[in-house]
């Protein structure tokens, strides 16, 4: 009898395409998605969007910025007016609006080169990458070629190496602090003397166009976003989880149509004076209202427990939540009218929602993904919804800046609702 039970389930599995899909195809699909993200996104750091500012107007600063612009790890973003010179205030505005992740501002004060990095601290990787590249560029520019050249073992020219002498060079086991300090002082003085005469176009004994920088360069990272927030990244997590479960709730609510179809309740409703338009609109308004309440409860919990400032951003939150909930409601009705059974809806909704959540940023932040994956995420309204909530809570931008996100979400809500109405025609003619 035990074998008979196993045989019954095997036959059921063989004839159930949805169960086949959820058992074998979905795990492989999601493994492929996350493997692609972590091998082409996190594993290979995507280009950081930067704005470059020459605050000193110096040729020396411009040389460093030109070297940074050629770096493979950076993507230089042009200013609002590509013909004008970008200043510090314009660069800071670009970071606040999300056009650039970080702005590099180079200046010279009392012969000291300073690099101020205006950072968006929501990206934990960008500041480290840009700091390393700026440090490398500043040190490389300050040290002339004749001094930067390295020997076979990576040592400076003039340092004895095994390859140059043919004999092993014994390493100093101990060194006193006075000897080390004296060597450092002599080498630093040598670098300054050569730097003063090794600039392009300079002659021995002739000062260069820019005076040599005698002090060590100063690099400072300034987080212009997230300051004063008790828990600055909680809004990102709240939005990501809220949007994902909003989609699941909408697909479950849309599945009521299939239940009404199976138990012939739908036919009795249409036999009355109710039309299919009225039925779909009624369900759409209900799912939209329920979604707004669901997201509001999530963010209220985030404010009470994790210190999210919901009341301070109530207008932007209300507009984004209404647009997101309406798009999710249309998505749930579209999936319901697309499927023929509740089992098909369950399998299709899981695949669609989890895929959109993975690519749209609900599971993995989009800034760690590669450029191609970030572009693919724009085909999901998860990405547009999260960008809108990010503008409201993190960047604290006015409601007028939500135009692109609201346009896409409302267009998706309208388009999917119309598609659901077209697919529902078969129930009227059946």
TrEMBL record:
One of its GO terms (molecular function) is ABC-type transporter activity. GO terms for cellular component: plasma membrane. Signal peptide: none annotated. It is found in: Cell membrane. Residues 145-183 are annotated as: Disordered. Residues 20-420 form the ABC-2 type transporter transmembrane domain. The chain crosses the membrane at residues 20-38, 236-258, 284-304, 316-338, 345-364, 402-424. Pfam families: ABC2_membrane_3 (PF12698). Keywords: Cell membrane, Membrane, Transmembrane, Transmembrane helix. It is a multi-pass membrane protein. PANTHER family: MEMBRANE COMPONENT OF ABC TRANSPORTER YHHJ-RELATED, TRANSPORT PERMEASE PROTEIN. This is ABC-2 family transporter protein. It comes from Allorhodopirellula heiligendammensis.
């Amino acid at each position: 009898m035990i074998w008979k039970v196993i045989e019954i389930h095997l036959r059921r599995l063989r004839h159930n395409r949805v169960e086949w899909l959820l058992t074998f195809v979905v795990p492989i699909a999601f493994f492929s998605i996350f493997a692609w993200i972590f091998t082409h996104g996190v594993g290979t750091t995507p280009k950081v969007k930067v704005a470059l500012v020459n605050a000193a107007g110096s040729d020396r600063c411009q040389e460093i910025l030109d070297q940074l612009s050629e770096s493979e790890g950076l993507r230089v973003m042009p200013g609002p007016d590509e013909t004008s010179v970008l200043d510090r205030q314009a660069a800071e505005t670009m970071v606040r609006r999300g056009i650039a992740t970080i702005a590099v501002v180079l200046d010279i004060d009392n012969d000291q080169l300073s690099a101020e990095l205006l950072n968006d601290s929501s990206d934990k990787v960008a500041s480290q990458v840009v700091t390393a590249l700026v440090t490398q560029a500043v040190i490389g520019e300050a040290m002339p070629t004749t001094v930067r050249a390295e020997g076979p073992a990576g040592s400076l020219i003039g340092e004895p190496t095994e390859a140059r002498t043919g004999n092993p060079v014994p390493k100093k086991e101990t060194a006193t602090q006075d000897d080390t300090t004296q060597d450092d002082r002599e080498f630093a003085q040598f670098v300054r003397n050569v730097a003063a005469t090794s600039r392009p176009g300079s002659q021995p004994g002739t000062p260069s166009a820019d005076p040599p920088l005698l002090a060590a360069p100063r690099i400072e990272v300034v987080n212009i976003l997230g300051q004063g927030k008790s828990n600055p990244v909680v809004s990102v997590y709240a939005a990501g989880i809220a949007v994902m479960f909003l989609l699941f709730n909408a697909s479950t609510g849309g599945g009521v149509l299939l239940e009404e179809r199976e138990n012939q309740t739908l036919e009795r409703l249409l036999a009355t004076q109710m039309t299919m338009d009225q039925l779909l609109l009624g369900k759409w308004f209900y799912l939209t209202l329920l979604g707004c309440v669901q997201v509001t409860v999530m963010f209220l919990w985030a404010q009470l427990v994790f210190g999210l400032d919901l009341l301070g951003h109530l207008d932007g939150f209300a507009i984004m939540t209404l647009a997101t909930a309406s798009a999710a409601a249309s998505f749930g009705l579209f999936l319901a009218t697309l499927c023929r059974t509740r089992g098909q809806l369950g399998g299709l909704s899981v695949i669609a929602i989890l895929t959109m959540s993975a690519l749209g940023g609900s599971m993995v932040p989009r800034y760690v993904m590669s450029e191609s994956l970030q572009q693919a995420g724009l085909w999901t309204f998860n990405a547009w919804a999260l960008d809108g909530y990010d503008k409201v809570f993190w960047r604290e931008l006015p409601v007028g800046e939500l135009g692109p996100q609201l346009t896409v979400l409302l267009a998706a809500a309208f388009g999917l609702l119309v598609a659901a109405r077209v697919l529902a025609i078969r129930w009227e003619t059946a």
